[in-house]
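User: Good morning. I'm curious how 3,4-dihydroxybenzoic acid would be positioned relative to this chain. Could you predict the structure with it bound?
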Amino acid sequence: MRTQVGIVGAGPAGLLLSHLLHLRGIESVVLEARGRDQIESTIRAGVLEQGTMDLLTETGVGARMRAEGAVHHGFELAFEGQRRRIDLTGLTGKSITVYAQHEVLKDLVAARLAANGALYFNVSGTSLHGVDTDTPSIRFTHDGEAQVLHCDFVIGCDGSQGVSRAAIPAALRNDYERVFPFGWFGILVEAPPSSDELIYARHERGFALVSTRSPNVQRMYFQCDPKDSADQWSDDRIWAELHARVDSSDGRHVVEGRIFQKNIVGMRSFVSATMQHGRLFLAGDAAHIVPPTGAKGLNLAVSDVRVLSRALDAFYKERRTDLLDAYSATALRRIWRAEHFSYWMTRMMHRLDDASPFEQRLQVAELEHVTTSRAAATAMAENYVGSVAV
Ligand code: DHB
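Assistant: Good morning! Here's the predicted structure, ligand included:
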């Protein structure tokens, strides 16, 4: 088999890259270890920055997002029994859309298949070869048959546990990591929305987040022990925790409903630099992880492949290599901005077991500041909608 660009991983980075390359007349093959059903049903994040929404729309895969996603012009910060709004649109002119990641994946898979794109699901034994030569290849097994895919470039979009990152020699790579000693307990609930906008809550008992998926399905999270097991939590205990952390003293409260999904995710910050080696380029979670606070993960994957698709286009159309050479440095500017924002918001909003009472009051002081100073609120809003210049 031969193609121009071999893509490992059919997550947001891999599928969107394949779609963007197709629109530029560049051929690719996407290899995915999981099944199509699995990627189309795994519950992940759900906030799309304005730039992500615009890109999906401009490239013809935004119709369902526009019809079914919810546009939000602000969010609320809950602390000390009150709620204060961050007016995203008033402060930045931009907004966000709440639309689940697996719905974005469904739309991208459908677009690739409609264009006869080559997508291989359930592949195993993937390995990368000759990435530091001009003739790299990917070996894998599909339907019981060993295959070799020869390509001009290999793009690693296979997440933090994938094989691609390890194909960059450790001596050329710096890994930067911070593991947080807490996780998020996530639930899906059959209920009407508790609020018109997302609520990020800081409370002595820990962080909580009220988000949405549709008029009838809500997504909520609360800080927990990452080693805890979801079965240990009865519905009553979950609601008690959410009420304690989110309800405000003026009577506004979380609306209960039937919980039909529970999961726990760990939290860490991670960056692996460089993101390229010879003909291998990493994009999305293969190169970096953010804690979910601030919802940057999917949006960073999108910005990586936007940069990469332009660089590959310049290579194929004009034989230019400057944009490819600069890929890692270009992508990392935005990645480090998002790493800082996600870390900052995580530290401001979560119960930190090593924080002294003094530092806990600093968290509240900072929340007071970002909700009263227009300059501070604007900085937060620009980061949240993804409009900071980098
Ligand atoms: C959601 C996830 C996030 O990490 C966040 O910051 C906001 C919303 C969500 O899944 O809806």
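DSSP finds twelve helices and 20 strands in the chain. The pocket of 3,4-dihydroxybenzoic acid is lined by residues 45-47, 98, 198, 209, 211, 219, 292-295 (CB under 6 Å).
Let me know if you'd like a different ligand tried.
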